[in-house]
Write a structure and sequence with these properties.
Nucleotidyltransferase, domain 5; 7-stranded mixed β-sheet; 14 helices; 23 strands
Length: 468
């Protein structure tokens, strides 16, 4: 069997092929525009995403099946008759609906979203963004009256246009705040809360199975990128350091209520004909995006400059950075938090500031893992991947911040790898090819003490109170 995967991510789209022997090969990669109409708004051109996905599919050659992973909470509204979007895709990072979610919180609605969807009220999730189309786009309201409005996450739009199948998968639906986590169906009360017409939403299907055909190629898997990465790691706990940092821990068929600790309950994946596998999830909004931001400020030119630092950790020198450039995600869920450095002096250098940025991302990830550890025992080994894990200093500091051994994966494309493996299962493969060997293991040789951790905790508090 030879399959392909398309990884449709926040900054670009990539395609890969995977065969029975485990040969995993890149086929194409295309970037797309990031559109920022005003502060806090992040959009993509949905037609550009579609064109890039088609181009990446065209580059794969002959395959038996294809899987597609998606950005998760990014949403599109389009005309069911023409397939044309009525507005740009609203990206998961976008916070334009913060006033809506804050009002719902004030009204006491978060109890319902936590109970039914397993998610707090935050503009990160899809529901309030989907409602935004109806409230602010005239064509969306017109199409709704005509029974032609389709609302969905980006995967539903792509599948509809690529294969004619108006569907999403259970992992993506679990990120919308509209799906009942216990039954994996759209929830009438949640749809009513957000004002989303049920008839405009796609069908929810298992992660592996029939999603139609692109030409002659069957699409046999559709999945959120972070869940795809977890499947690609082949372990029970992973952190992916991409634009943001996302940790997932498998909990089997057991739903863990993590709301007390700011941890999300979600679906890891579901194979056709089988019950869904559950997971705990926690996201940090800014990871590589914080490092790229520092580079844009001119604090360094090339990533080779920041793989090592002559001095001790910035944290031990009382220099702290909180990477809340888009607010704080898990476990705080505070969009009002601000990114900031604390502890600067006349002797602080540009390199010191970058060192603190790397440490801040690691410390935020450690906060998420610590919150998960309050809910269930975690193994002493956590698998990590993503562009930031190519940085040796970051990896060493991360291991010490977690107080665990980190398994640094050799491949930085485990999202596409996991999607391809899911496509194989969706096509009916009885077994899967071998997993790639990890690059290295890094042990926690000098775990951070409580004083240093408390220093970061105080900085988080300052970040959250800065605007007030």
């Amino acid at each position: 069997m030879r399959v392909a995967s398309v990884d449709q991510g926040t900054t670009g789209t990539k395609s890969f092929t995977l065969d029975d022997l485990g040969h995993f090969t890149p086929a194409a990669a295309l970037e797309h525009r990031q559109i920022y109409p005003q502060a806090g708004w992040v959009e993509h051109d949905a037609e550009e995403l579609l064109a890039n996905v088609k181009s990446c599919l065209d580059a794969i050659g002959e395959v038996d099946a294809v899987g597609i992973d998606n950005q998760g909470e990014t949403v599109v509204a389009w005309d069911s008759r023409t397939g044309r979007p009525v507005y740009n895709a609203i990206v998961w990072q976008d916070d334009r609906t913060q006033d809506v979610t804050e009002k719902l919180k004030t009204d006491g609605a978060e109890e319902l979203t936590l109970k039914r969807a397993g998610l707090p009220l935050d503009p990160y999730f899809s529901a309030s963004k989907l409602r935004w189309f109806i409230d602010h786009v005239d064509e969306a309201r017109t199409l709704l009256k005509q029974g032609r409005l389709r609302l969905g996450t980006s995967d539903a739009f792509l599948l509809d246009r690529l294969t004619g199948t108006f569907a999403t998968d259970v992992t993506t639906a679990s990120r919308t705040s509209l799906m009942a986590l216990d039954t994996c169906t759209w929830d009438h009360e949640l749809c009513k809360l957000f004002g989303i017409p049920l008839e405009s939403l796609p069908e929810i299907r298992p992660t592996t199975g029939d999603f139609g055909k692109f030409g002659l190629i069957p699409v046999t898997a559709s999945v959120v990128d972070q869940q795809a990465a977890l499947f690609g790691h082949g372990v029970s706990a992973k952190i992916t350091f991409g634009t943001g940092a996302f940790a997932l821990v498998l909990t089997g068929d057991r739903r863990v209520d993590g709301s007390q600790f700011g941890i999300l309950s979600t679906v890891a994946w579901q194979h056709a004909g089988r019950p869904p596998q559950r997971a705990m999830e926690g996201g940090v909004y800014n990871a590589a995006s914080a490092v790229n931001w520092a580079r844009g400020l001119g604090l360094f030119k090339d990533f080779s400059e920041i793989g090592s630092f002559g001095a001790a950790s910035a944290l031990s020198q009382n220099l702290v950075f909180v990477p809340a450039l888009s607010g704080l995600g898990c476990p705080h869920w505070d969009r009002n938090a601000s990114g900031l450095w604390l502890g600067m002096g006349l002797d602080t250098t540009a390199k010191d500031l970058v060192q603190a940025v790397l440490e801040g991302v690691a410390l935020r990830a450690a906060e998420v893992i610590a919150a998960m550890a309050e809910l269930t025992p975690l193994e002493n080994r956590i698998s990590v991947d993503g562009g930031l894990t190519k940085n040796s200093y970051f990896n060493r500091f991360l291991a010490n911040a977690l107080g665990k051994t980190i398994i640094v994966q050799d491949s930085s494309e485990l999202t596409g790898f996991g999607t391809a493996r899911l496509a194989m299962l969706g096509k009916g493969a009885a077994s899967l090819p071998p997993m790639p060997a990890p690059r290295t293991e890094i042990h926690s040789e000098a775990p951070l003490g409580p004083e240093l951790k408390w220093r970061f905790t105080k900085a988080i508090s300052r970040s959250r109170n800065w605007k007030t």
